[in-house]
Amino acid sequence: MKEIFFFLGKxxxxxxxxxxxxxxxxxxxxxxxxxxxxxxxxxxxxxxKIKPFKGLKEVDQNxxxxxxxxDFYLKxxxxxxxxxxxxxxxxxxxxxLDKMFDIIRLSPxxxxxxxxxxxxDILNNQKDKDFLVIDTPPTALTLRxxxxxxxxxxxxxxxxxxxxxxIDRRKMVTHVKGCPLSGVKSCITGEDKVLTELIxxxxxxxxxxxxxxxxxxxxxxxxxxxxxxxxxxxxRIIESLKNFxxxxxxIVLNKKLEDSSLINELSISKDKIKYKxxxxxxxxxxxxxxxxxxxxxxxxxFKF
Amino acid sequence: MSANLIVIGGxxxxxxxxxxxxxxxxxxxVRATDSPTPAxxxxxxxxxxxxxxxxxxxxxxxxxxxxxxxxxPVIALAWGWLPALLWIWLxxxxxxxxxxxxxxxxxxxxxxxxxxxxxxxVIKRHTGYIFSWFIFFVLILVVAAFGAVLGxxxxxxxxxxxxxxxxxxxxxxxxxxxxRIRMNFSLATIIGILMxxxxxxxxxxxxxxxxxxxxxxxxxxxIIVAASIPVHVLLQPRDYLNAWLxxxxxxxGGIAIVFSFxxxxxxxxxxxxxxxxxxxxxxxxxxxxxxxxxxxxxxFHSLVASGTTSKQLSTEMEGLFIGYGSMLTEGxxxxxxxxxxxxxxxAIFSPHVAASLKGNAIAFAMHYKKxxxxxxxxxxxxxxxxxxAVHKILHLPKDxxxxxxxxxxxSFAMTTLDTTNRLARYTLTEICEPLKxxxxxxxxxxxxxxxxxxxxxxxxxGLAWSGAWSIIWPAFGGANQMLASIALITxxxxxxxxxKQKGMFCLIPALFLWITVTFAMLWFLYAAVPVFMHKNPxxxxxxxxxxxxxxxxxxxxxxxxxxxxxxx
Amino acid sequence: xxxxxxxxxxAFSLFAQGFKQASVEHIERELxxxxxxxxxxxxxxxxxxxAPPPFxxxxxxxxxxxxxxxxxxxxKNLDDKLAQWSDLVDL
Lengths: 304, 568, 91
Description:
B: 568 residues; mainly alpha; 78% helix; globular; C: 91 residues
């Protein structure tokens, strides 16, 4: 995968439309493009005027789309866990994971995790595609998704240090007492699976951090409308992402009505973020129109 | 009367009573059977694991042996060696060992729950809570008592603190060798023991002089710091070295006194009320349990028995050996102490002091307390007598052995200082439990990690600051015996109400103890505290308040015991 | 003669066992409390309490059987903690 594009912004500002424009524009140039939507609203099929479907599908030359089903990825992940539990637990069978699924799904943190899980899946399996265009869900979830690797890294660091102390002490005890019985818990007989798993998770999160922060490959496009609410939300997004050292590459003012200068309101000049405008159009949005829109707003901003 | 006759006599008495009285308790009162113990039924190989009876005995004995069975008897010699021995023998056989054994067995029958937990079940719910108060006071007062006694010997004989400091360094090194580098266990052990011997030898060469109050400050800082560092750094290796120190000290002392044919030089009987506590005439009854606690009867042992030992007992039949037997063994240790000090005592005092003691028994009684004070406190007296005895019989260098003996006591006392703090932190939280709902801000303040650690340490060291070991030691003894009386009443309730056996054999000692301790504490408040008030009002108030709270709770305990009879 | 030697050997191994136990008992206690705490934090993450994100807890779950046992055992005895530590005090 050469480059990734995130489209951020308040609901309804036109993320789906603009991400559609980019996807079609790129595929039209002969570049293999995968366009995904994590947004539960799933507007892709509506925009392209095709029937909704599950999974990945090639809808045009060089253009693939997928509407991510979060529940599907969650179930997949939990099945994996269940298998590992049955493999590892000797006689303690406490959790009935099937019943647990409904509760886990709503647990804070699981939705964004499922999205990352899906993203990882796509990055691993769709290496032959050149561009990945992502239509994101409502802001709160998007910020949580983007922030999850950073927050998790901190937790894993603490847990790892704690676990290493536990292993250290187990080694002290085993060194003196040996491992006489098979049931003895403090006994060290090889790698600590918990630590291994923690390191594995750390590597996963590290790879996401690398991807999210790589300015050459990952681009963030903030979409706003000429109304106060979407501008305020846009500001919130910029501020929140600063916490993770993520910077917006381009702000697009969509559905622009008259010639009003909103640059000042956004204080964009301070941040030196590039700025483009897309006018409101009453006409129907078709393929040609989308390519035209994209060619205008990507001009002098991105090179393909 | 020669010393080793006393020792042999004591040994025979203990063995006889173990077989006769102990077996009687096992068969008629506890009714020990073959039914599986919690160690087998609830086995998890962490807490509940059946242990070999000798290993468990060693562990249990090492847990109940400390500095107290040595310090107490030295002080009690003020009444003469005969009354002291009688309490060590009879008190142990009929009250102390019974208390230990029944605490252990009741815990075994309750799935390894502690006697505190059982109290909540067989008497009243809040009896477990009263337990916590007694425990808390014991923990504070033991810091005060051990701190005072240690301060005295550290100030009087500066070779002791330097030997101990070197031992700490040895422990730190051993910790690195055994737990970090993971050297071979036997090799590391040998190096550890060699370092220990070197520490004692070097200590005699480079004394560390400091005032009593400087030591108080050092102890305070030590308590707070030691309770905060990871255990494998200092605590664990230090306690491991202590185990070897105990073995060495017991073996050397045992051999020395058994093969010594010296006569008892101290008087057998002095008078009923020699001036002992606060310089006031101290009546043998009811005060003796406050002076000799461990060695004859110690309430804290009930917790130790029901802590880990009950969870590791393989069969009920082994309970007698471990519970009853180890308490008798501790009694034997105290017997050794009485014999050693009684036989070699006069030689340790400076000629001027010794002269005031010789003559007749009354002269001895009048001046004994001062004599102890002039010789580095009770620890100093023991160490010197021990040094003389081992030197005479085994021809080992006197100075080295004296410091070894002092180090032995000091090591156990210092361990108690910081481990008590860890426990006190937790006990404070238990006591403050009712405040959680009613005064949450006070609760969170008091149970804050640092505050909860500093409060008991500050009160303990604050009390020891006064240097009045003859007042603080019996205060500690009193709290410990309060604990024993609540434990005995609990097991009596268990025997009568649950076992449905005749509870006479624990009820009579329990009531005897309750009456004795109550009168002893009243005497203490009446006679000793006012004297203390004169010189150290702050500490006197602190002790006085603790005593009064304990007395009131003690009365509540009996009321609860009687009133809860109907529920069964 | 053989029997005496055998008994001596037995006694020696018991001694060794006792001393080995004495040299690690504090560490073992600290270790079990640390395992308990580790498990508590992971488990509470599965209920969404301020803790590591739940998926960490889930992914570690297959390997935490011993710690879960320890945690459950300790929570059963929360009302009887005091006496467990009493043998440290050497009183």
